């Protein structure tokens, strides 16, 4: 598509996009106050939700990693799109037609993801259409024998790829897609005579993301003369990454979020069988082992609830044993409880439903057992326990499994169980488990191996970059030193970074809380490209990383709590506070140096109060170093959760900030009056008049 998207269309797409619904396709959100929702951050790994969304404002912010932005930014970061592709994606989501203006505009370099996704969607429709044709009789018979009728196939988008070499390619070329786009999307392969269909003579399942967009396909062969693999998937492409997708998640995400339970099976037909039997939380990996990226996807949907469940199904063969041990090696990444369900006679869910019905599939998951117990039994099953060598080898294999059980209170019980299974001495098994507890965990060992495999020069470069400040951090250090010159030592030390448990308060006067805990140690060095050295040849130390300026870095004192809450009210409820009161508030004394900068930025941007550009105007008037703090003030949940009282609360907290100035002035006037001593002195009478006027101003401010 040539030309630039019209600016008014971009604004309209942004205005019409519900940010909570958009983010909800990726993250389970819960209410966090008035016009505020929160969930686990999709941009970094965390245990407690610190990712906040303000639907009315149209912004999100993570208090853990500092990521923030609007609907466009979110989709760009999540799906690695260009800006133009993001606008097109969101416009299609809300069925809004875009207008393109002519000009010397060209897209950014790289593949057009929107085109690749559209090609996948067109291919999925083509495959579904072919399933109804005469050639697909074998495919329909295969599916029917496994209990999947036409309605089931329609529900899951199952299709058929004809046996010809270019049936699908020719169809998509007729729709305007180029051979290069078909190869890049993984729909076609490149041969000596040009592009040809990748999937031929196969049943095809579309693999979709959580928003329902088709990213790729999985296909099963049907014919004996097909020399390809039994299952063939889309290769890695700009839109398809097998380690980050789960088949069926688009259909299962709401049930998983609602029930806090996920079932991980091994195949596409297993997912279909589970859903049709009423287990609507079933998903499957796509041609790869279940790994940490899959865990991250599920955690974002489920949230981190210790009562949540993840149930795996594994075949009882050697491959299934290896899969179980791989899953257990990543089990610590889950807060949820992990289980294994093994069907009788080694049947997978699809076969179980085919031979014994839906009820048998449902019963399968009621007979679950803890994952670590299953892994323990599978680990020792490979050894001959009737020999000393076999028992020693089995103990060596099983002890690390017990050592890695998340709940330490369960380890003694399973140590005794392992003792019984091996016929060994309890002390011998306890010693092996303790030794395994002291050894590096399996994930740590794997990471160590990866680091050891890197060239030494590359490792040195990475270490150097991790320790070097960025240009922005260097500027921040310099600005921070300048802003604190001349301050009392106690006040300067108060601005230093504090621990996460000292961060934030519910509202001024109630003391500290961890509401604004930012897990800040993850943030050092996150801005830009690294530069500079480790100090000079004479051994000067490298500069310290810049302090992250955010809510968690503010001084932990009642005066700062009041200033923070007042500025938060001004950022979020400026119209409710009122223009007149805002005019006064941007001149009020703010002692915290970082909040002082924010106050000045609000004063400079006051003309845009009440407009959609209010936040952008404040950001534009502030230095880059304080953008994170401003966004947090604009996104953080207000302490007042009652909508009817929010406007009154906002005015009251801003009035309290202004009243603090008047109280301080009154204290100063009283001290001066006391020093004069003689109440008849003209100077004392002037001070009394000022005190009367001051009290009148305070009453007027409070609305008395």
Q: How do the strands and helices of this protein lay out in sequence?
A:
Layout: E1 4-5, H1 7-16, H2 19-24, E2 30-31, E3 37-39, E4 51-54, E5 59-62, E6 68-69, H3 71-79, H4 83-93, E7 100-101, H5 113-131, H6 137-145, H7 150-156, E8 159-161, H8 167-174, H9 179-185, E9 188-191, E10 194-197, E11 202-208, E12 214-221, E13 231-233, H10 249-259, E14 261-265, H11 268-276, E15 282-284, H12 292-302, E16 309-313, H13 318-329, E17 337-341, H14 349-356, H15 358-364, E18 369-370, H16 371-380, H17 388-403, H18 411-422, H19 426-438, H20 442-453, H21 456-467, H22 471-484, H23 489-494, H24 558-572, H25 574-577, H26 579-585, H27 593-604, H28 614-620, H29 627-635, H30 643-676, H31 682-702
Parallel strand pairs: 14-15, 14-16, 16-17
Antiparallel strand pairs: 1-7, 2-3, 3-4, 4-5, 5-6, 8-11, 9-10, 11-12, 12-13, 17-18
Helix pairs in contact: 3-4, 5-9, 11-14, 13-16, 14-15, 16-17, 17-18, 17-19, 18-19, 24-27, 24-29, 24-30, 26-30, 27-28, 30-31
Q: Which regions are unreliable across 5 or more consecutive residues at pLDDT < 50? A: 104-110, 445-544
Shape summary: flat
User: How much beta, percentage-wise?
Assistant: 5-15%
Residues in helix, %: 40-55%
β-strand number: 18
The pLDDT mean sits at 80
Helix count, per DSSP?
A: 31
Structural class: alpha+beta
Distance between the termini: 63 Å
Enumerate the strands of the largest sheet in spatial order, edge to edge or round the barrel. Answer: 2-3-4-5-6
């Amino acid at each position: 598509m040539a030309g630039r998207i019209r600016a008014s269309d971009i604004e309209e797409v942004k205005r019409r996009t519900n940010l909570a619904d958009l983010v909800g396709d990726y993250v389970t959100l819960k209410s966090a106050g008035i016009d505020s929702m929160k969930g686990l951050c999709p941009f970094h790994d965390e245990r407690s939700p610190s990712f906040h969304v303000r639907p009315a404002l149209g912004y999100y912010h993570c208090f853990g990693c500092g990521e923030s932005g609007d609907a466009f930014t979110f989709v760009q970061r999540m799906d690695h799109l260009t800006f133009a592709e993001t606008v097109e994606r969101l416009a299609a989501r809300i069925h809004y037609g875009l207008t393109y203006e002519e000009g010397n505009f060209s897209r950014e370099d790289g593949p057009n993801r929107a085109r690749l996704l559209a090609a996948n969607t067109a291919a999925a429709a083509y495959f579904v259409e072919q399933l109804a044709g005469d050639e697909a009789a074998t495919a329909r018979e295969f599916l029917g024998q496994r209990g999947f009728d036409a309605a089931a196939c329609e529900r899951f988008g199952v299709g058929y790829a004809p046996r010809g070499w270019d049936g699908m390619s020719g169809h998509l070329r007729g729709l305007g897609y180029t051979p290069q786009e078909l190869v890049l999307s993984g729909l076609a392969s490149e041969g000596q005579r040009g592009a040809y269909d990748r999937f031929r003579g196969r049943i095809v399942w579309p693999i979709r993301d959580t928003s329902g967009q088709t990213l790729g396909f999985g296909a099963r062969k049907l014919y004996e003369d097909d020399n390809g693999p039994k299952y063939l998937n889309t290769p890695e492409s700009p839109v398809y990454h097998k380690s980050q997708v789960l088949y069926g998640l688009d259909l299962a995400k709401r049930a998983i979020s609602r029930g806090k339970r996920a079932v991980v099976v091994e195949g596409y037909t297993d997912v279909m069988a589970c859903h049709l039997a009423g287990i609507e939380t079933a998903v499957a990996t796509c041609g790869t082992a279940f790994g940490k990226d899959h865990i991250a996807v599920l955690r974002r949907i489920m949230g981190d609830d210790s009562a949540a469940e993840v149930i795996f199904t594994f075949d009882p063969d050697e491959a299934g044993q290896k899969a179980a041990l791989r899953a257990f090696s990543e089990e610590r990444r889950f807060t949820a409880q992990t289980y294994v369900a093994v069907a009788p006679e080694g049947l997978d869910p699809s076969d179980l439903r085919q031979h014994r019905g839906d009820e048998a599939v449902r019963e399968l998951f009621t007979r679950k057992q803890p994952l670590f117990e299953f892994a323990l039994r599978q680990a020792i099953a490979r050894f001959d326990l009737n020999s000393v060598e076999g028992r020693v080898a089995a103990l060596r294999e099983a002890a690390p499994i017990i050592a890695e059980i998340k709940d330490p209170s369960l380890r003694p019980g399973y140590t005794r169980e392992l003792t019984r299974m091996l016929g060994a001495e309890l002390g011998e098994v306890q010693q092996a488990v303790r030794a395994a507890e002291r050894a590096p965990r399996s994930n740590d060992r794997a990471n160590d191996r990866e680091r050891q495999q890197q060239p030494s020069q590359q490792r040195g470069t990475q270490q150097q970059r991790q320790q070097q400040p960025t240009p922005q951090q260097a500027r921040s250090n310099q600005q921070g030193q300048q802003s604190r010159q001349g301050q009392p030592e106690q006040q300067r030390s108060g601005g230093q970074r504090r621990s996460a448990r000292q961060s934030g308060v519910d509202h001024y006067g109630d003391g500290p809380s961890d509401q604004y805990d930012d897990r800040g140690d993850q943030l050092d060095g996150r801005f830009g490209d690294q530069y500079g050295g480790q100090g000079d040849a004479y051994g000067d130390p490298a500069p310290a990383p810049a302090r992250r300026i955010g809510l968690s870095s503010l001084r932990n004192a009642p005066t700062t709590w009041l200033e923070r809450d007042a500025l938060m009210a001004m950022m979020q409820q400026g119209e409710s506070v009122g223009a007149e009161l805002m005019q006064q508030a941007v001149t009020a004394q703010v002692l915290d140096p970082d909040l002082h900068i924010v106050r000045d930025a609000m004063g400079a941007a006051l003309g845009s109060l009440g407009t959609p550009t209010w936040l952008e105007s404040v950001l534009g008037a502030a230095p880059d170093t304080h953008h994170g703090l401003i966004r947090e003030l604009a996104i953080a949940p207000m302490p007042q959760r009652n909508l009817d009282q929010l406007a009154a609360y906002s005015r009251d907290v801003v009035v309290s900030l202004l009243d603090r100035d008047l109280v301080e002035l009154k204290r100063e006037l009283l001290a001066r009056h006391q020093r004069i001593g003689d109440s008849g002195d003209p100077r004392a009478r002037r001070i009394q008049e000022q005190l009367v006027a001051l009290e009148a101003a305070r009453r007027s401010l409070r609305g008395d």
